[in-house]
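Model it.
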Amino acid sequence: MNRNRSFFVDTSAWVALFSNDDKYHVAANEFWKSVPQNHWQILTNDYILDETYTLLRREQNGLQRAILAHQVIEESHLVESLEVSTQDRQRGWELFTTYTDKIISFTDCICIAMLHQLGVYQVFSFDSDFVRAGFVVKP
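Modeled.
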């Protein structure tokens, strides 16, 4: 894995890409269009996809949006979906109980732990928690 050419996609970015009503939809799509030509390796994980499909389903015409998102992500040769392991959850829990000055979701703590383990420090997200955790956030 080329860590300098890798980035992780968070729930907020997936939702923005597939939800026309999302306030970040235009910015997300502009960034996403640049991905193939820049030869990025795209990572996400099963917890993020769970959150994404659930949030999309709650919107108007949400089931169709969730199905479309699932098809695009699963059929893409650009996206690698990582499975969260027991070790990832344990490291995430350690972070979750350490961040007492910030309210960060358990899922984000797991992602932060995974990304540190992988040495990936770029995240496609509209969530400020990743900035506070020291990641380079795109777009």
